[in-house]
Amino acid sequence: MKPAKIPQATGRGTPQRRRSAAQTWLRAIALTARLEARPHRLFADIVEEWAERQPERPALLSDGQSFTYSELAARINRYARWARGLGLHAGRTVCLLMPNRPDYLACWIGISSVGATVALINTRLVGRSLAHCIDIALADHLILAADCVEAFESARPHLRRVPRSWTVGTRDASGDLDAALATFEPNPLPPAERGDVTIDQRALLIYTSGTTGLPKAANVSHRRILTWGGWFAGLTDASTDDRIYDCLPLHHSVGGVAAPCSMLCAGASVAIAEKFSASSFWDDIARFDCTVFQYIGELCRYLLKAPSSERDTQHRLRLAVGNGLRGDIWEEFASRFAIPQILEFYAATEGNFSLFNVEGKPGAIGRIPPVLAHRFPALVVKVDADSGRPLRSDTGLCIACGPGETGEAIGRIGRADRDGAPFEGYTDPAETEKKILRNVFSQGDAWFRTGDLMLRDEQGYLHFVDRLGDTYRWKGENVATSEVNDAIRDCPGIVDASTYGVAVSGMDGRAGMAALVVDQRFDFGMLREHLSYRLPRYAVPTFVRLCRALDVTDTFKQQKQRLIREGFDPSVVDDPLFLRDPATGDYRSIDRVVYARIVAGEIRL
Residue limits of the AMP-dependent synthetase/ligase domain (predicted)? Predict the structure, then answer.
C-alpha cells in the first residue's frame, strides 16, 4: 500500500486557546450531560453527522492509510452492514487483532453500531495468553491482520473453540474481509435495520490485568464511549482545527477510545502511528502538523533521554494530554519541548471515576472539584500494607485517609446521573465482585476498588503512589505476577518461582523480577525460549535471582516484601543476579559495575 498523502491543516501558528479551570470543567459537563435523552445515538452517528457537515476534512491520518470524514463514515457503514449480514447482534462478539491503523477504529465503531461487541485484543500477546483472551470473549468471529497471523497460530492449539477468522491484508480467499466489505453499500443502515441498540448496551471488551490473575475482559458500554469522547473533548478544548498525535496502542482504552474519540467528537483529526518511536516522534509531530499529543509517562522519559535537536520545538503543539508524567520530570519536559500546557489525568478502563489535573500542578494526577463531587464521589481509604485489605474501625466501616496519608483510591458505585457512577465490571461475575468493596461508609453502600495507592495533599490534589496487590506496571502495561509465575513454573528445571516488580532509578513503573529455585535441569537458554512463547515481551522478567529457597507464610503464601526491598543490588543480595538483554533475550550476570550502569541509565532495559 502506498503511503497516504497527508493533508495539511488549514491554520498556521501555534493555537493559543486557554480556558480557565472552571470554563474547562463546564464545557466537559455540557458535552456529557443528558446522554439518555437520545438513547439510540451512538458514536457512529457522531461520525456520520460530521461527515455531512465537513465531508472532506481529514478524520484519521497515518502513513499507510487515511480517511476523510466522508470516507470514514462509509467504511464504518460497510462494517456495520457486513456485521448485520452475518447476524452479529447483541450477545455476539468479534475479536479484533490488528496493529494501529485507521481501519481499526472504523472496524469497532461499525460492528458495535449494530449491537455486537468487539473485543480489542493486545497485539503483543502470544500463545496461551492470547488464547485466554480470545476464549473469555466467547467470540464467534476473529478479524486478523496479516501482521498478527503468526501470533494467532501460536495461540490456536490452546483455544477451547476456534472462531471463524477473517483476514485483512493477506488476500486469503477463504476469509478476505476487504473483499467482503467491498460488496456492501457505504450509506448508513436505516434505524429499523440497525436494530434497537441503545447507549447502555455493551460495545467493547477491553482487557486489563487489574490487580490479580490473568487478563480480564472489562465491559465497555456505548454510554462510556460517548462519555469518554465528550469528556476528553471538553477538557482538551478540542475543535475542528486540532490534530492529535496518537502513538499509543489502539487496543487500550486511552489510545484506542479516549484519544481518538475526543477528537472525532469535536470534528478534529487523529494522526495514528503504528507505534511509538523516540527517533521519529518530533518529525511526525511536524509532518502531521499536530496541535495535541497523547502520552504516557514512559514515553516522556524516552523523549527526554534522546539527544537534543532543533526539531524538539519546531511544532504547533498547544497541549500534551496523558497519564504517568511524574513530578521529577514534569517541568523539564515542558520546558525542553516548549509544551504550553500539560493535562495529566487518571483513569482505569473498568473504573467508574477519573481525575484531571486541569490546573497543571506538577506531579499531581488531578482532583475532583467540589461542583462535581456528587457526580464522581472518590475517596482514599486506609489499607493493610501486606494483605492489601482495607482497614476498618470498631464499627466495621472503612477509614478515610487524611491529607498526606497513603491508601487505596475508591469510587462510589451508583447511577449515571447521581450518587456516583456505574461499575460495568467484567465478563466474569466473580471477577467483578472482587473489585467491589461493600459497607464502606454506611451499611449497604458499594465502591469500586482501583487497586491503586494514592495520597491527597492539603490542596485536595491526588498523587499516584503505587499499585496494590500482585500486579506491577511496566512499559505502559499491567503485569499480573500470577500469570508470569505460572509460565515460569512450567519451564523444566524450575522448582519454585516468585515474581514481583522492582523500582529502577529513572524509570517509570516497576521492572519485573523473578526469584527462582532451580534444579540441575535448569538452563537460561531454555527459560528464554519458553518465556518468549508463553509471555508478551513486556511481561518477561527483566531481572532474575537464583535462590536456595523462597520465604512463605504459615499458610504457604509467598512473602515478597524482603525480595522487593533488596531488589537487584549485588551489594545487598548474596544470591546470583541476572539481567535480561532486551535485544537478545539472554540473561547475563549482574555485578557491581553492571548495577552501577543500570542505575545511571547507561543500560537500556
Answer: 48-392
| 436 plus 372 within the same structural domain | yes
How many Å apart are CA 538 and CA 373, to the nearest integer?
Answer: 37
pLDDT in tens, 554-584: 334 456 778 888 999 999 999 999 999 988 8
Same domain, 385 and 342: no
Which 3 state secondary structure label does DSSP give 342?
Answer: strand
Q: Which residue has the higher pLDDT, 172 or 382?
A: 382
**Following DSSP, what letter does each residue of 9-76 receive, concatenated?**
PS--S-------HHHHHHHHHHHHTTGGGSTT--HHHHHHHHHHH-TTSEEEE-SS--EEHHHHHHHH
The b/e string for 150-178 (b: 16+ C-beta within 10 A; e otherwise) is: ebbebbeeebeeebebbbbbbebeebbbe
Q: Tell me, what's the pLDDT at 148? A: 94
Indicate whether 154 and 87 sit together in one domain. yes
- Report yes or no on 65 lying in a domain: yes
108: domain CATH number? 3.40.50.12780
Residue 595 lies inside a defined structural domain of this protein? yes
Do 328 and 257 sit in the same domain of this protein?
Answer: yes
CB 479 within 8 A of CB 535: no
Residues 426 and 489 reside in one and the same domain: no
Range list of H helices, 148-190: 149-155, 177-181
Beta bridge partners of residue 494, listed in sequence order: 518
Can you read off the three cell numbers belonging to residue 193? Answer: 435495520
Quick check: is 3 in a domain?
no
The region of weakest confidence among 65-69, 240-244, 396-400, 418-422 is 418-422
Q: Is 376 helix (H, G, I), strand (E, B) or coil?
A: coil
Does pLDDT of 592 surpass 70?
yes
pLDDT range class, residue 6, cuts 50, 70, 90: low
Would you place residue 13 in the very low, low, confident or very high pLDDT band (cuts 50, 70, 90)? low
Are residues 383 and 482 located together in one domain of the fold? no
CB 317, CB 291: distance < 8 Å: yes
Number of domains in the chain: 3
Check residue 101 and give its pLDDT.
Answer: 96
Q: Do 246 and 383 sit in the same domain of this protein?
A: no
Residue 549 within any structural domain of the chain: yes
Q: What are the pLDDT digits (tens) for 396-437?
A: 999 999 999 989 999 999 876 566 689 999 999 999 999 999
Residues 6+ apart with CB under 8 A from 326: 297, 363, 508
Choose the final residue of a domain: 466, 488, 505.
466
Residue 337 has pLDDT above 90, yes or no: yes
pLDDT tens, residue by residue, 549-559: 887 543 344 56
Determine whether 403 is exposed, middle or buried from the number of CB atoms within 10 Å of its CB (0-12, 13-18, 19+). Answer: exposed
One domain for residues 40 and 184: yes
